[in-house]
Amino acid sequence: MVLRHSKHIHSKKVVSAVMAGLIALGGGASAVSANETAGGTAASTTQSSLRAFSDVAAGYWGEKYIYQLAAQGIVTGNNGKFRPNDPVTQQEAVTMAIRFLSMQDQLGSGAATLPTNIKVNDYFTQYVQLAFQQNLLDKQKESGYSDEKVIWGAQKASREWITEMLVRSIGRTAEANAAKNNATGFADNAKISPDRLGYVNVAVELGLAQGVTGNKFDPQGAVTRAQLATFFSRAQAYIDTKYANQYEGYIASLDNGKLELYVDGKLQSFKLDAATAYFTSDSAKRQQFSDLKPYTKVVVVANNGTAAYVETTDPAQQVERFERTYARLSPNHVIWFDTGSTFEELSYDANTVFLDQNGNKIDPKTLAAGSLLTIERETFSQQKRIVSIRVKSGLVNKASEGVITSIDTVNKTLTLKDSTGYEDTFAWDEKTVIRYQNQILTPAELKAGYTVKFSVENSVLQSVEVAQSVERTVQGMLYSVEENGKTITYKRNGSTQLETKFLADKPEIIVSGVAKPVLSDLLADAVSGDKVLLTINGEEQVTKIEVTGRQMEQLDAATIVNYDPKTRWLTVRDANNQPRVIILDEKTKLEASTGTTLDKVEPLLGAGRKVSVSVIGTRALSLEVVYKVEGKVSSMNTSKRVISIVDANGKVEEIPYNTTLNVEIFGKSSASLADVRVGDEVSAQLSTNQDYLQTLKVKTAAQFEVVFTEPSKNRIRVKANGTTSDIYTDKATLTGDSGQAILLADLRPGTLVNISLQGNTAVAITQVKLTLGEITNVDASGNVVTVKDYAGNSQAIGVSTGVKVLRNGSTAANLSTLAVSDRVEIRKDIQGVTIINVMDKLERSFWQASNSEIQVKRKSINDNYRFALSDKVFVHQGDTTLSVQSLKENDNIVLYLNNGVVVEIVKQ
């Protein structure tokens, strides 16, 4: 059964009655509270009783509802505990149903008459009798109860029994009778009692009940207190229950120690104290008094004039604002406005606040005729009380704090909202000073949401100071990057001053046309550095560098004419046969087959050799002695011993080879040219003199499972299709499943990785993203499956590029074999096909466990009873997360195994 929380509180308070039963009732008459035993209704319950629930931790999903019910005087507790996971008996469930319908005043006072075989504890007799009278129970059906070992009232309530009583409680018996011959669609439909099929159908149709794991209804399964709360919570839309100490309305005024509520045309006043609990209708998280806002819609549950429970049901403040020109005041709280052709009068009261341009309170008698005023009044009452009147007209002179709501760089205006929610717009000019941590900013660097201190003179901003740590962007030119990668220096656009910032750990770098760029890919220069957009966080660290423009020129396959090692002047002939003089310096990035230092590269800079050079003016940013050609094989002429390769730009290179040609293909020893096909992606390694093809490396990619890693040797052992391979990683980039840089040691045994190789050399290793969780929706026609992962996040995963569903050794090429509640592992293979592995499911009784293994009790002598535990195993009961150590012997559990390892345990 899936627990679902109610999002709204209406005058009908179903959850209250439900939780009352859950808390006030235990396993029999001995479990009820003292005042109930005496025939009361727990009306004397106070907040202090709630605090005694030692098994309701802060943040528990039901905390909100327990506070609410304690405030309503329904909850009394049982020996200081709530016991949400205890099973509910039939007599308890009946009592809850009566309270659910608010029928306690119809209970009899004398001896109750029940069918002969219907035995209950004394406290419950009047409730059960009333349930029969109201047709919440079928007298003929219940009279057939014949278990002599367990009395009828102490019998654990089953899911199908609860479902019938619930459907009867909301008056849908006729619909259930009409649906009694329809199959439910659950896999265990045949196990549902025939006379309850109709009730299950109605409950499912109305959304009151859902199935459990494996598309089953589990009709005979026991119902816990928390689960029963779910049933009744879902039924709240179908009944109308009212509570005498509950009020719903709008907050008319709010002050420490007092709340005034506008309810049905009248004001109700409530005290507030330290025990008052605050919540919102769309969250189970407890709020603070400071989160309450005036003129919002709330529900108040009060005890003796004190608000014990306050829930915001609509956070929108019900106020309207408009402007008027002030004329004069009259006695009896009347204010007059000049409309131009006549006068308009409005009434205000003693609670109306008058404010000047700076937001300070003023005496309304100080208002000057002709002033432009902003009127704010509430809209939830017929009176439409004026809440505040603020002076807006005239030249504004003020110093205040506020939040930027918008920036208009065209009209040079800034709109700010102060702490009262009032917005005003001011202009800036060239004299306006904008600061952030002693730095001068431009208006364009301000963003909506910034908290600022500001001063205004004659309605013009004089200063704006960002008063919080913020993230901002700066445009400028990159001047230098420190060699240790800790700082960068730049020149802001429009400024001649240099600014230096620390770099955040692993800053994001974006350079168009460069895959996974690093700091060394940035071009820093005193005159022609990269144009960059820098993102700077609140700690003044650069977190992102985006190159927006660069003046670099690329010369591909230029032919060397001459090189002077003394001056480091390199003369080349470009593709247009024009001479170019290029100067190498200590910052020039070098690359050749012999190395990446100048002493290794200089011997190769002879006349006639081809090089690729990137330059700014005459300065060489990078130089590569062409020693390889990358692209796709377009043709192979074995008689002339020539291979044609087309590069990414469509240029075809014809490269001769000789009998010593070495061919590398991963996984294939003694590869030859006969193993290469037209269309293969290759890296053609040239000889030192660039005159023939020395090594042809075929590019491949595959998915592997990590066996182990050896970081000290830059080696990883992997396996795929039963074959184990050792791969060196010293020339590979390593990334995690979110694209982040990782170390070889970060890859654990069992991890899946995609490895891209050139021949036998790994150039990229990427961790495969795995999504493990429960399927919540399957859209086979739309090729989308929705999964709730073990972190509680819901993900919609599209499979339009292909899918393979693996279940019990069989494979399906579509989503039709998947079902809601299946546990799955989802990944993409190397071709991008989505692989969905449906986990094995095993129901057993718990025996014992360690940190790495769980042992269960066997159903037969041949059963496996020992299973390895994932180091991130998810253990839970409903929405409550548990630990393996919290499991007790004989607990009924469901294990979900992924490749033989337990990744999820569900306690029943």
Short description:
The protein is mostly beta strands and 908 residues long. 10% of the residues lie in helices and 41% in strands.
Helices and strands in order, then pairings?
Blueprint: H1 14-24, H2 34-37, H3 47-50, H4 63-71, H5 90-100, H6 125-133, H7 139-142, H8 159-169, H9 173-178, H10 197-205, H11 225-234, E1 246-255, E2 258-263, E3 266-271, E4 277-280, E5 283-287, E6 297-303, E7 306-314, E8 319-330, E9 334-338, E10 343-347, E11 353-355, E12 372-378, E13 386-391, E14 398-408, E15 413-417, E16 423-427, E17 433-436, E18 439-440, E19 451-457, E20 460-466, E21 472-481, E22 487-492, E23 498-510, E24 531-536, E25 541-549, E26 553-564, E27 569-573, E28 579-583, E29 589-591, H12 598-601, E30 610-616, E31 619-625, E32 628-637, E33 642-646, E34 652-664, E35 681-686, E36 693-710, E37 715-720, E38 723-728, E39 733-735, E40 752-758, E41 761-767, E42 771-779, E43 784-789, E44 794-798, E45 803-807, E46 810-812, E47 823-828, E48 834-838, E49 840-849, E50 853-857, E51 866-877, E52 880-882, E53 892-898, E54 901-907
Parallel strand pairs: 4-7, 11-13, 17-20, 23-25, 29-31, 34-36, 39-41, 45-48, 51-54
Antiparallel strand pairs: 1-2, 1-6, 2-3, 4-5, 6-7, 8-9, 8-12, 9-10, 12-13, 14-15, 14-19, 15-16, 17-18, 19-20, 21-22, 21-24, 22-23, 24-25, 26-27, 26-30, 27-28, 30-31, 32-33, 32-35, 33-34, 35-36, 36-37, 36-40, 37-38, 40-41, 42-43, 42-47, 43-44, 45-46, 47-48, 49-50, 49-53, 50-51, 51-52, 53-54
